[in-house]
Amino acid sequence: MSTSARVRADACPGVFATHDAADGPLARVRLPGGAITADQLRALAEAAEDLGDGALHLTSRGNMQLRGVTRPGLAGRLAAAGLLPSPSHERVRNILASPLSDTAQKLAPALDEALCAVPELAELPGRFLFALDGGQGDVAGEGADVCWRDGAVLLAGEDTGLRVTAEHAVETLISVARAFLRVRGTAWRISELADTEPLLKGIPGEQAEPRKFEVDPGLPIGPIGDATGVAPVFGRLTSAQARKIAKAGNAVVTPWRSILVLGALEADPGLITDPGAPSLGISACVGRPGCAKSLADVRADAARVGRTPRVHFAGCARRCGKPAREHVDVLATEDGYLVGGAFVPVGELTETLATLAEKGTQ
C-alpha cells in the first residue's frame, strides 16, 4: 500500500450531485447489497422513462444509473420509494454483498442503517467501498476498502488476520470507516494509506495467521433454484425489462452487471439467461455518443464481435466500468483499438479476439 495525494475534489456522482455527461446529467442510485424490491424497481423504471433516457444502467458496484436526467423530480421519487433514506449519506452508501448468501444479504441493510446513523461518515469519499462476503469469495475480489468475509476482515483485499463473528461484522466495518476518516489525509481509498494498522486498533476479535483467499467473482446465469440469474446486454436495462423483472418479484443487482431475479421471469431477448452466451464475456463503457471523452462507439463495435476471451471495451484511458476480475483490455484510439496494448484496426477486431479466445482454451 502506498500514500497518494489527491488534489482533485471527489466527483463521484449521486442523486443531488450528478455528472454532466455528453447525453445529459447522470444520476447514480445506490443499492446497498444490490437489493431492490419490485415496487422500487417499478419506481426507477418510471423515473427513467419520465425524467431520463428510458433505461437503467447497471454499474460495477451493484448500483443503477439514470442517464440524460434533464427533468426535475428524481430525488422526490426516490425518497418516496425508500431509495433515499439519508440524503446526507447518499453518495457513501457503497455496499456490496454476496447475492447468494443469506447472511451477507441480511447484514447489508443493517450496515446501511448503521452507516447512515453516523453523521461523520457522510464525509467518506464517494469511492470508499464496503463488502460483505458470505464465504463464496465473490464480492471479496471486487476491490472493497474493507470486507467482512465469513469472519475474516480484509483491508484493500488483503487479509488482516482479524476474525469477527457475523454478529459483530457491522460494528467492525463501521469502526474501520471511522478510523479511516481520522487518518486519511488526502487519501480516497484504504489502498492509498502507507499504514493501515490504526484502522483496526481497539477492534475486539480473534487473531489468526493472515491467509490468501481464493476469489470466484460472478453470478451464475440461468436458473438458480427458484430464482434466475440474468444479464442485460452491456448492463443496460430498458424500462420494459425492468417491469418484467419487477413482475417476477424482488431482485438483487450484482457488481457484474447482472441481476438475481427472485421469482419466475418472462422470457426477454435482451435479458441473457444462457450461461454459454458469448456476450457474457464482454463489458463496455458507455462510449460515444454518451461520453464526450470517448474516441469510439465502443458498444456498437463490441456488439459486432463474436467469440472472445473476457474483454472490456473502453472509449478512453479512464477505462470506466472495467471489471475487477482478469480481462483483456480493449482501448479505443483515433483509428482502431489497442488490444492488450497491441494496435488492431476495427475491421480486424473480431478475428483478433476470436484468436485470443481460442488460445485461452488450449
UniProtKB/TrEMBL annotation:
Keywords: 4Fe-4S, Heme, Iron, Iron-sulfur, Metal-binding, Oxidoreductase. Residues 27-70 form the Nitrite/Sulfite reductase ferredoxin-like domain. The keyword Glycosyltransferase does not apply. The keyword Cell inner membrane does not apply. InterPro entries: NIR_SIR_4Fe-4S, NiRdtase/SiRdtase_haem-b_fer, Nit/Sulf_reduc_fer-like_dom_sf, NO2/SO3_Rdtase_4Fe4S_sf. It comes from the Bacteria. GO terms for molecular function: 4 iron, 4 sulfur cluster binding; metal ion binding; oxidoreductase activity. This is Precorrin-3B synthase. It comes from Amycolatopsis regifaucium.
